[in-house]
């Protein structure tokens, strides 16, 4: 039984949908569907009942999902366990982030870590957004630079920087002529948030803030691709959130000539911080690293 086939099958069972499973795995629907069909052919039984709106497991599928989840969890923990042994010998600290996080923040955190543990090798790993928190939970990473809150009980976090978000729109939007907005100006407009799949807690936090400030039509864009979201904004005239005067990271696409980004005086806040496993925070070298982060950003607090 191929691990890839099992991973695809479990994702479909957990999501109840081939499309959502594919997005979670950073694949298209076709290879996920093909992997499940090959698994069914190998086992010699149907594993899923494919409905028009949802997918449910057959009795054989339920059994495979129960046993397979344990096998996959053990398999996924194997590499981190071996790597932890190697890292202990090499004295390595692993810091993870994604291409969506502002590189200036990542660089600042890495610099603090390197100064805190000068006798250690600091390795920076860029992960797929949907995988970052899982890699932190598994112990593949010692520290992650991510959008907060993390929303996972096993993880702890500390704020590094808080951004007041602005509104992105197409350049020809009537609001684009202004220099500044308030939430009242966009209360009746459709505001698209990126898919919650990579970071459901932080996207949910943004949505709550928008609705609390009077936004009446906040929607989740079906894909986590910010470029696709920008194209939707350009075609439809909907609005999106964007960092203001930050031309790197997740929303840099909105600084192209086709768009306009305006500050919002009472707009929602986006938090970027560091996360770690709570059961490891007293272990070295993480304890030294966290003390250095707290000293460098003393007002951070802990949103999780």
From TrEMBL:
GO molecular function, one term: DNA-binding transcription factor activity
SUPFAM superfamilies on file: Periplasmic binding protein-like II, Winged helix' DNA-binding domain
Protein name stated in the entry: DNA-binding transcriptional regulator, LysR family
Domain HTH lysR-type: 1-58
Keywords of this entry: DNA-binding, Transcription, Transcription regulation
UniProt cross-references to PROSITE patterns, sorted A to Z: HTH_LYSR
Species assigned in the record: Cryptosporangium aurantiacum
Pfam families: HTH_1, LysR_substrate
Position of the signal peptide: none
A single cellular component GO annotation: protein-DNA complex
Record-stated family: Belongs to the LysR transcriptional regulatory family.
PANTHER family: HCA OPERON TRANSCRIPTIONAL ACTIVATOR HCAR (PTHR30346:SF0), TRANSCRIPTIONAL DUAL REGULATOR HCAR-RELATED (PTHR30346)
């Amino acid at each position: 039984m191929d691990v890839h086939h099992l991973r695809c099958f479990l994702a479909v069972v957990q999501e109840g949908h081939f499309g959502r499973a594919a997005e979670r795995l950073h694949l298209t629907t076709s290879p996920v569907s093909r992997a499940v069909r090959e698994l069914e052919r190998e086992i010699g039984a149907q594993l899923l009942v494919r409905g028009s709106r949802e997918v449910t497991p057959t009795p054989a599928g339920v059994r495979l999902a129960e046993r397979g989840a344990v096998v996959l969890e053990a398999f996924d923990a194997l590499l981190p366990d071996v790597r932890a042994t190697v890292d202990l010998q090499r004295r390595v600290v692993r810091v993870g982030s994604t291409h969506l996080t502002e590189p200036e923040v990542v660089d600042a955190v890495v610099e603090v870590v390197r100064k805190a543990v000068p006798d250690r090798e600091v390795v920076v790993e860029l992960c797929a957004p949907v995988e970052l928190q899982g890699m932190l939970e598994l112990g593949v990473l010692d520290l992650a630079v991510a959008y907060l809150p993390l929303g996972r009980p096993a993880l702890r976090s500390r704020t590094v920087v808080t951004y007041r978000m602005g509104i992105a729109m197409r350049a020809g939007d009537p609001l684009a002529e202004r220099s500044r907005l308030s939430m009242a100006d966009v209360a009746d407009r459709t505001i698209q948030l990126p898919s919650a799949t990579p970071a459901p807690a932080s996207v949910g936090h943004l949505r709550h803030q928008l609705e609390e400030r009077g936004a009446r039509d906040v929607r989740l864009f079906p894909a986590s691709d910010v470029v696709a979201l920008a194209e939707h904004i350009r075609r439809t005239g909907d609005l999106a959130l964007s960092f203001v005067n930050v031309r790197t990271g997740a929303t840099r696409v909105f600084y192209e000539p086709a768009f306009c980004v305006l500050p919002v005086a009472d707009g929602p806040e986006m938090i970027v911080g560091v996360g770690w496993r709570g059961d490891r925070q007293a272990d070295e070298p993480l304890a030294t690293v966290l003390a250095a982060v707290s000293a460098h950003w003393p007002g951070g607090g802990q949103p999780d």
